[in-house]
Amino acid sequence: xRYAIIGAGPAGVVAAETLRARDSGGEIILLGGEAxxxxxxxxxxxxxxxxxxxxxxxxRHTQGHFESxxxxxxxxxxxALDVESRRLIxxxxxxxxxxxxxxxxxxxxVKPQIEGLDQPGIHHCWxxxxxxxxxxxxxxxxxxxxxxxxxxxxxxxEALVRRKVKLTxxxxxxxxxxxxxxxxxxxxxxxxxxEQGVDVKTSTRVKAVTPDSSGKARYLLETDxxxxxxxxxxxxxxxxxxxxxxxxxxxxETRQGVVVDDHLQTSVKGIYAAGDVCEGxxxxxxxxxxxxIQPVAAxxxxxxxxxxxxxxxxxxxxxxxxxxxxIGLISTxxxxxxxxxxGDDAQQLDASRYKYIKLQFEEDRLIGAITLGITExxxxxxxxxxxxxxxxxxKQRLVRDPSRIxxxxxxxxQ
Amino acid sequence: xxxxxxxxxxxxxxxxCNAEPLNMRWASEYLGQRGLATKYLLEEIDPQVDPLSPDNxxxxxxxxxxxxxxxxxxxxxxxTKGALTGAxxxxxxxxYFGAELKFAGWDMVIFEGRALSPVYLLIKDxxxxxxxxxxxxxxxxxxxxxxxxxxxxxxQLRIAAIGQSGEEGxxxxxxxxxLHRAAGRSGVGTVMGSxxxxxxxxxxxxGVKVKDPARFMRVVxxxxxILAENAVTGQGLPTYGxxxxxxxxxxxxxxxxxxxxxxxxxxxxxxxxxxxxxxxASDGKANLIANKACFGCTIACGRISRIxxxxxxxxxxxxxxxxxxxxxxxxxxxxxxxxxVDDLEALTFANFVxxxxxxDPITFGSTLxxxxxxxxxxxxxxxxxxxxxxxxxxxxxxxKMAELxxxxxxxxxxxGLGSKRLCEKYGHPELSMSVKGQEFPAYDPRGIQGMxxxxxxxxxxxxxxxxxxxASEILGIPEKTDPLATEGKAGLVKAFQDATAAVDSTGxxxxxxxAWSLDDFQPQVDAACDGEWSLExxxxxxxxxxxxxxxxxxAAGFTGKDDTLPKRLLKDAAKTGPAKGRVNGLDQMLPExxxxxxxxDAGVPTQETLSKLGL
Amino acid sequence: xxxxxxxxxxxCTGCLQCxxxxxxxxxxxxxxxxxxxxxxxxxxxxxxxxxxxTQCADAWCKNAxxxxxxxxxAATGAKEINNGLCVGCKxxxxxxxxxxxxxxxxxxxxxxxxxxxxxxxxxxxxxxQAITFVDADWxxxxxxxxxxxxxxxxxxxxx
Lengths: 414, 615, 159
Hints:
The structure holds three protein chains of three kinds. By secondary structure, chain A is α/β, with parallel strands linked by helices. Chain A folds into three domains: 2-37 and 56-108 and 241-308, 3-Layer(bba) Sandwich (FAD/NAD(P)-binding domain), CATH 3.50.50; 122-236, FAD/NAD(P)-binding domain; 328-413, 2-Layer Sandwich (Enolase-like, domain 1), CATH 3.30.390.30. Chain A has helices at residues 10-22, 44-48, 65-68, 128-137, 151-162, 183-195, 294-308, 380-386, 393-400, 405-413; strands at 2-6, 27-32, 71-75, 78-82, 87-90, 95-97, 100-103, 107-109, 122-124, 143-147, 166-170, 199-201, 205-211, 219-224, 228-231, 233-236, 240-242, 258-259, 271-273, 278-281, 288-289, 313-315, 321-326, 329-335, 344-350, 355-362, 365-372. In chain A, the strands form seven sheets. Chain A has a five-stranded parallel β-sheet. A five-stranded parallel β-sheet of chain A has the order 9-16-10-11-12. In chain A, strands 23-24-27-26-25 form a five-stranded antiparallel β-sheet, with helices on both faces. In chain A, strand 5 and strand 6 (95-97) form a beta hairpin. In chain A, helix 1 packs parallel to helix 7 and helix 9 (393-400) packs antiparallel against helix 10 (405-413). The longest helix of chain A has 15 residues, at 294-308. Helix content of chain B is 39%, strand content 13%. Chain B is built from 25 helices and 17 strands. In chain B, the strands form four sheets. A six-stranded mixed β-sheet of chain B has the order 2-1-6-3-4-5, with helices on both faces. Chain B has a six-stranded mixed β-sheet with strand order 8-7-12-9-10-11. In chain B, strand 1 and strand 2 (16-21) form a beta hairpin. In chain B, helix 11 (329-337) packs across helix 12, helix 11 runs parallel beside helix 13 and helix 18 crosses helix 20. The mean pLDDT of chain B is 97. Chain C has a single domain (3-150), classed as Alpha-Beta Plaits (2-Layer Sandwich). Chain C is 25% helix and 22% strand. Chain C is built from five helices and nine strands, in the order E-H-E-E-H-E-E-H-E-E-H-E-H-E. In chain C, a hairpin with a 4-residue loop joins strand 6 and strand 7 (109-111). Chain C is globular, with a radius of gyration of 15 Å. At the A-C interface, helix 7, strand 22, strand 23, strand 24 and helix 8 of A face strand 2, helix 2, helix 3, helix 5 and strand 9 of C. Strand 22 of chain A pairs antiparallel with strand 9 (155-157) of chain C, so a sheet runs across the interface.
């Protein structure tokens, strides 16, 4: 059996290792699109912050890890997929034949339609190469504008603050991390960041980026609402999109991402998808969803590989979950944190101490949560949601005091 | 090491909270907790102040071993001038609060002045905030605990609070922490209430370090082993709690009953530790549901009980159906024998209320016993009590009055004065079973002679925890003495008082002394604390503390004449049991005690004694 | 045979000696806030429940780690944090459905139970044998294991 895996991120690497564990004789080809060892994008902010060196971002640290597992690690981009002939066409001219394929090529950042974003000195913060470029300009005291205060932007923000730059954060939405945090939490995070010295401008749109003719700064950002902002470096973190362009014209069904079934198989038999590129199901609603997060990447990589190797394993959907450290203020969100029609919620807010917890229930089960300023035992929120524990009398206790999540879990399980 | 060397000073009048270095010279002379806090109090207030005035101070103090791995290392003391007594007050508590305060980096918190309106103190490590408590005022300890946990979203927050009794000026209000552990005696909660301080909530993440960790770990493990192998700390206390004593003390004829009219109680076995284990006919369950340890304690004498849901006290009151702190011996005696009530469930309910509203069950039970005697004499009427017949043996009277005292309402207001003021009010001061204004607890000095001297000379008013000679006279620890003899008791009391004062200053629990002597504390203290801590030095610390407390009381206006006992114990002989025909022979012990102490005939420490102790 | 922590809550008195022992063993200081084992007190039920990582087979924490900072100790079976590789991203803290991986603000890394390398300090310190270190197939432990499996609804193998 010959397995090919497109993408050497967490989903691809976990899949390759899982395949090897299941099938000692099969041929495994892992394709990485960048001229780097397999690494974790999630670690890039820590590299930028100077907490680790480049090797700290590597997914595997043992010398010769892939060789020792007889996994061929090929550094090349896939240009096209020929479903008929079960063949991948590579950018450098070669091709790879496969019996089973995993599409785990992740996502790529997108630039908004704004005039002037194609100039040098304007970067995404997505690849190691991006990080090297940013590190060059993001030095102590330099003026940096970060566009986008979503999850990724907020993580990069932390790294830039550690580099002691003079940072302005511009976000179109009315709060920070709008897709992970509600109004209350998003505003508290904004308030916190401002207190830590970041100039946060929400509800602000960048209209154009032009070279600063006065010569005082490299660029001037023209905004709608916040005037002109000078910048020596602009980092664009306005969103990512699954990388599906090379599948155009193939028989693989795509919508936002690669559509998979409940075994992570695509519309073509023998071809699977995992990680950020994969459009699976939301665990709560059962609706189509892309949860581009590390735990889901690792989990779908593992499940897809099990299925590819013949061990039929059901994929029941992905639970959205995120954790964010905004200059020391830690927040998490889980599942259906927006709540559900007919459900109810419980919340407790201590704005002056930046503490907040909000739980969402459907009947007496927890379906989603947001926390701010709470780090102890937060994982149990996943346990409560994922186990669909009927909380019984503990629901009322949680409504009275939502911070007693760990006790609720223990009371119902131990 | 051991100490954080840091004191938090909170001025409630101007709202300031400041850190200051711990006076390490005093720490080297008074160790910590009881001794050190008393030193601060003596230095900082005029002993003659009105205890309820803003000039009094209130100190929450840990010991150097609080928050360490030494067994029972979770103690703290609340030190102030007592509201009930006007004497030095030092009430010791366990639970988790003390260790948490230590983990937050504080050896002591000193409250001074009085807040304009109710406040509570929130401590999270170095972050300290004085916050409005208007919405907590008028609430019980239990409600306050729940509200603060919810508000601050931290299940690990440890809370010490007063209940309504402390707000309403009940003179024996206590400070309850962790829902059912109490700094119980002398009205320390009343002082807290007078300062408009409702609660202290603390969370600590800094930990505690000791001088020589490897030696400390070795020593504390050895000492834990001794506790585990000892019959009292390894078996008796874990099985029955302190309630192991109820039947024992009744049998030796030293269980003060019906306001100490008798020394044996017919209903003793029904309210004993054994009874708490028995399956109830009503619901097929036992009163006792679990043992509970305080922080770091390997003994676990604490009791967790649940009241029978069908009992009249809680029927239709589900808020009392949950488990909570069960009866300990002194409480069971006070709520039971002292009032003649033998209904275990009623006692448990009254005990819950004592915790819920934070008042001392010993003084409450004894005061109610006195009120019952006055009622039966016709001096207190149904009109006074609001219609409740205060008859000995009436469970209804007990539970009704507990609730009234808890809220400081109706006749509860009168009972809230304590027995001394109550009996004076009704013209029979001799019926108050108190010394220096504080009621004596569960050991009748006619049957246990040494306890007479213990009560008479206790610096915080009558108390068993200042020299627990019961250990020697009844249990034979460290050696058996005759409970009916007075010979040798002066020396025994002095030795116990000094050792106890030292133990109460370490951060460890006095109950370890059933198995440990000062020799066992010494290596633990020495491995934890800066400096050299020899046995001699530790003993001297104890004696120094005792004399310092005495100085406080003398300066507060007490004299040797206050070293006495209620007339009943000195004149009315025990009617039954082994002590039948006996009164307490205080006059045979007290002069020798003064002499051994190095005090003059009036009970005043001589100059020589003071300079010997560096006072 | 691998050994595991067996926890019997009905024997626990809530003394927290385990938390002290854990923090002392791992951090060199008596500090329950840094303990990998935690006793939860259920006041109304009169129950004390010690709780820590079960070293579950699913290893949610390990699988979620983006930098291979959580590894299995072959001798003990424990999932251990490699502080050199941990970047403090906290993903494991939200991925562990048992809530037993916690972020340590002081170090910027995460902490979890590592069975003290095969001789857990908590079990040695427990005065009532509520926490013991026993063969992995001991019944008390299988109860926790069952829960570990029940939580594993994201992937129910149909083999």
